[in-house]
Amino acid sequence: MARYVGAVDQGTTSSRFMVFDQHGTEVARHQIEHRQILPQPGWVEHDPLEIASRVDEVIAGALWRGGLTGADLAAIGVTNQRETTVVWNPKTGRPWYNAIVWQDTRSERIVQALEPQREFLRKRTGLPPATYFSGSKLKWILENVEGVRAAADRGEALFGTIDTWVIWNLTGGTDGGVHVTDVTNASRTLLMDLRTCNWDDELLALFDIPRPMLPKIRPSSARAAYGMTRRDGSVGAEVPVCGALGDQQAATVGQVCLSPGEAKNTYGTGNFMLLNTGHEIVPSKAGLLTTPCYSMDDKDTVYALEGSIAVTGSAVQWLRDQIGIIRTAADIEPLAASVPDNGGVYFVPAFSGLFAPYWRSDARGIIVGLSRFNTSAHLARATLEAICFQTRAVLDAMTSDSGVRLDVLKVDGGATVNDMLMQLQADVLGVPVVRPVVAETTALGAAYFAGLAVGFWKGLDDLRRNWKADRQWDPSWSADQRQAAYNEWQKAVERSLGWVS
Q1: Residue 268 confidence (pLDDT)
Q2: What is the pLDDT of residue 404?
Q3: How would you write 468-497 as a 3-class SS string?
Q4: Which DSSP helix (H) or strand (E) runs through 8?
Q5: Is 501's pLDDT higher than 60?
Q6: Residue 35: exposed, middle, or buried by beta-carbon count in 10 A (0-12, 13-18, 19+)?
Q7: Does residue 486 register a pLDDT over 60?
């Protein structure tokens, strides 16, 4: 009998495969980074073939590290960077173009032309027109990459977000790979009706997208598996691939925020806060997204409010790779801790514009308050504080929309290992911050939904019993200190929004 469930977690900067037992405990993992391709300002791309290769490598590596074989896996789930757009030829398996990453802003012209349709798009999809979402990226490819539209007419160009690309390759690729997505990923395209959870003809016409390019929309947890892995592939056995969730919805499941009013915040390349609203679709008046949280066979879709922040962990990478004041991401914590405060420095890392709650693609990154007194340590601390202030803006919007005031914020993602960041987050929000034992809840959520599909876990209560707190941070700032710091941050945001290039 298979003793474990596996999950592919294909993220913005790396791919990993993790294996979990019935208690939700990590058994094995392997992770490999992939290249960030930056052809010009505002453009961010990935090589889909590199991603497919990395996924194969991390699966094989995790199984080897755990002393496991594919036969030990009851099921596999997939979670992924959302909105990142791939178009490929199903006959050759080769992409027509690099994957256009969710952070990419090249489709600004397309989005600006959609501005008169803003209210229609919000009501139909839960999303505003923004370069963030897949529809404008797909339209850009169809308009700008030679031969793609004609290939689509011939059935030689398929579209997918990264979940679709990964599942197609895992289940056979050019030799019978299945072309599917789940409701959470489909919802991030600006092409899906939020209420029916189906592709919408009016939206397809608005973007001029041929329907045959699109994958079939399936539940996030599917008893009838999407497909089976190949014996001659990286898994080395036929294992059902039967769970898929966009990364932030997967983290919400991994944090067992399965009841209305429960929320989590994930700290990765960007930050993403989701609040479960149950079966109710809650329109946002404060700049948030209304989005499916997950779907299961024969059950109504569960929805969420989401606050998406484009640049948090990637701001730390910027300090490391472009500015060079730290050698590794982990170096930011001792550097920032070497000063008692930010020295008056505030950093708005609007490298891809500002997402929630502002939705201003014209915003630009800005550092204010510099004097000769300031050092690299002040900039490091300002970077950590920027992550926390952006989260405060999202939480304020979420409270305004939902009326829910959080008693505690569950946190996850790679940056939660930074204890100073977590303390600053509690200080800035004024609520306790709790990290679970399994901080990589994105992969865990995908594993949970794959395992539920095959009966490895019997129901949601099994998942709730698995959740355990690792550490809690309580606020230490006074209310006056908290508000004064946030007011200074908001002044910096106004300068970012007022930038004229």
Answers
A1: 82
A2: 82
A3: CEEEEECCCCCHHHHHHHHHHHHHHHHHHH
A4: strand 4-10
A5: no
A6: exposed
A7: yes
Confidence of residue 299 (pLDDT cuts 50, 70, 90): confident
Residue pair 309/291 in contact (Cβ under 8 Å)? The answer is: no
pLDDT band of residue 438 (cuts 50, 70, 90) is confident
332: confidence class by pLDDT, cuts 50, 70, 90: very high
The residue type at 462: D
Question: Within a 13 Å sphere around the CA of 159, how many CA atoms are in the beta-carbon half?
Answer: 29
Per the CB < 8 A criterion, the answer to whether 243 and 77 are in contact is yes
**Residue 285 Cα distances to 119, 303, 306, 356, 398, angstroms:** 11, 16, 12, 12, 10
Count CB-CB contacts under 10 A for residue 102: 26
Angle among Cα 319, 106, 275 to the nearest 5 degrees reads 70
Q: Dig out the tokens for 333 from the structure.
A: 């914590």
Provide the whole-model pTM: 0.86
* pLDDT per residue as tens digits for the range 457-480: 999 999 999 999 999 999 999 999
β-strands 271-278, 45-46 pairing: unpaired
Rounded CA-CA distance 188/192 in Å is: 8
* Residue type, position 39, single letter: P
Look-up: residue for tokens 């349709």?
Answer: 117
Average of per-residue pLDDT values in the chain: 93
Q: What are 209's two structure tokens?
A: 């997208």
Cα–Cα distance for residue pair 355/233, rounded to 1 Å:
39
Q: What is the radius of gyration, based on Cα positions, of the chain?
A: 22
- 482 Cβ neighbours under 8 A, 6+ residues apart: 427, 428, 430, 475
pLDDT at 414: 82
Longest C-alpha distance within the chain, in Å?
65
CB 303 within 8 A of CB 258: no
> For a pLDDT cut of 90, what percent of the chain falls above it?
79
CA gap 51, 88 in Å, rounded = 13
Q: Which of 442, 41, 28 lies closest to 243, judged by CA? A: 442
Query: Given this model, what pLDDT does residue 159 score?
Result: 98
Residues 443-455 pLDDT 10s: 999 999 999 999 9
Q: Are 282 and 402 in contact (CB under 8 A)?
A: yes
In whole angstroms, what is the distance from residue 230 CA to residue 232 CA?
A: 5
Query: In angstroms, rounded to a whole number, what is the distance separating the alpha carbons of residues 396 and 109?
Result: 30
Q: Three-state SS across 223-284?
A: CCCCEECCCCCCCCCCCEEEEEEEHHHHHHHHCCCCCCCCEEEEECCCEEEEEEEECCCCCC
> What is the signed CA dihedral for 166, 103, 198, 241, rounded to 10 degrees?
20
User: How is residue 499 written in tokens?
Assistant: 């930038």
Q: What SS3 class is residue 455?
A: coil
290 neighbors 126 (Cβ within 8 angstroms)? yes
CA-wise closest residue to 270 among 141, 127, 102: 102
